[in-house]
What we know:
This is Radical SAM protein. Residues 184-399 form the Radical SAM core domain. The protein is α/β, with parallel strands linked by helices. The protein is 34% helix and 15% strand. The protein has helices at 25-34, 51-57, 74-87, 98-102, 121-132, 162-165, 207-210, 220-228, 246-259, 271-276, 278-286, 301-306, 313-325, 342-354, 372-377, 402-418, 439-449; strands spanning 2-7, 20-21, 39-44, 63-67, 93-96, 114-116, 143-145, 182-183, 190-192, 195-196, 216-217, 234-237, 264-268, 289-297, 329-336, 359-364. The strands form four sheets. Strands 3-1-4-5-6-7 form a six-stranded mixed sheet, sandwiched between helices. The chain has a six-stranded parallel sheet with strand order 9-12-13-14-15-16, covered by helices on one side.
Amino acid sequence: MRVLLVWPRNERALLSDRLSCCEPLPLEYLGGALRGDHDVTIHDLRLDPPLETYAQTHEPPDLIGVAIPYTTSVHVSREVSREARRLWPDVPIVLGGHHPTVSAEWLNGFSADWIVAGEGGAALSHLACELEAGRSPSPVQGLAPYDSRTGLERDRRPKPAALNDLPMPDRSLLSHHRGDYFHSVYRPVSLIRFTAGCPYTCKFCSLWRMTDRRYLVKDIDRVLAEMADIEGSNLYVVDDEAFIQPGRMLELADAIDKAGFRKRFHMYIRTDTALRRPDVIARWAEVGLDSVLVGAESMTDDELSGYRKGTDPGQTRRALDLFHANGVKVRANFIVQPNWLDEDFARLNHTVQELQVDMPSFSVLTPLPGTDLYDESRSQLISDDPELFDCYHALFPTRLPLETFYHRLADLLAGASARSSPGVTSGADPSVFYYSDDSAFDEMLRAIRGGADWSRPWEPEPVPSTK
Ligand code: B12
Ligand code: SF4
């Protein structure tokens, strides 16, 4: 059957498509699961024309999948589902993505027949085959009728080898857009996943809960096969924490070397993981580790322990030295707390100026659905608008007036971008991670300064309880 998979566009996103626009790897995984049995098209609304134009020039699909990649996408994905229903009234629609995987909230009002939670390939393949055979699909794990979505259960404790069981992502489906996807200094860029899950338990993070702290690893041969399938040299590794198993990472580095791949890697790593095995960092730098994203979060012990981060500020400093000694650029993310006063912003600004972070970034402490923080603070939130869960808005009460808070946040970003930064100023790279040298960053700052306008009165819609 003809399956149309749609990735939404969010024009209101503060981290706009002009600052980062990555390939929809989740949909390529789904395409991989359907390959050979169904005719799949991925329609990326960030780059492709509106669905109406597509409908005028293409045969109608037999099944439509609409992605809800983030909580912030709920509104735009709902609009996509309604537009799809208007254009193709009789075609079944299935929803899936990170948001419905971790939450049943804000899912009212979609035009949809089915919903998927968790890795979607097997569920989608089952759905397509049953529909094609003219049968009424029986619910399987991770798949439920849209109307009974509160009963949706995903695999919460996947087995460690589960990633090997997933078919290879079908990258041919987006070959026509290959040059259009970029992330910061990586233009073009391809996304790849070596592992999933994390054994740590940070309070603001949903990723460890997705796998119940299990660390799922792909076989080295499988990683190499996926790399061989990618033409470009810039790889953004989307693992939650890539270096949890140092021995395996050394093996992988050797295998990459032996296979003759010459790639530039951007990867996520904890500071303590890096410090535990400097030899692994040195070896990865030899095979192409170009930059890392570390969650520095804070330079105070109190805040770090409140987040259950399990690291300390000294580790951040030492890890920065380690990365720099190996020529690896560091993007460090810092959490801004809504209850901060002027002096707290000044402290972080000072930290960023003083630490030699190449590419600082800042997230407002956000109770993302599926986190312990969310579960314990849901009733205290100052807004119920899913679009505000973007890490650039305050969902907890601020102690500064809201307008002042957003101005301080924008000032932090502006100050960080104005610094000369050690690792990235050489060559054509911009000095701060996401920020392009055109007007996109200025637009982001303007939107952050206007953040208070987004805060609407608390109007909770009647929602089913969170799973
Ligand atoms: C890469 C990435 C990005 C990239 C872009 C990704 C892209 N392709 O466009 C960038 C850096 C731009 C980004 C931005 C943001 N991100 Co981000 N990102 C990720 C990351 C690290 C990997 C995503 C990925 O490719 N995963 C691998 C795929 C294979 O896994 P998957 O999503 O689970 O897909 C499976 C299922 O969900 C399902 N499925 C998925 N889609 C569909 C659709 C259908 C129809 C079906 C049936 C099934 C299905 O099947 C898939 C295959 O098995 C995730 C963390 C993570 N581990 O997922 C965060 C993550 C998704 N991001 C997150 C956030 C918050 C954001 C931002 C909102 C905030 C920010 N300041 O960064 C912005 C939003 C940008 C925007 N413009 O809207 C959060 C989302 C939490 C939430 N509840 O919203 C995550 C989970 C990280 C976190 N902090 O916890 N992100
Ligand atoms: S924030 Fe990073 S280290 Fe903490 S649980 Fe999430 S993935 Fe693991």
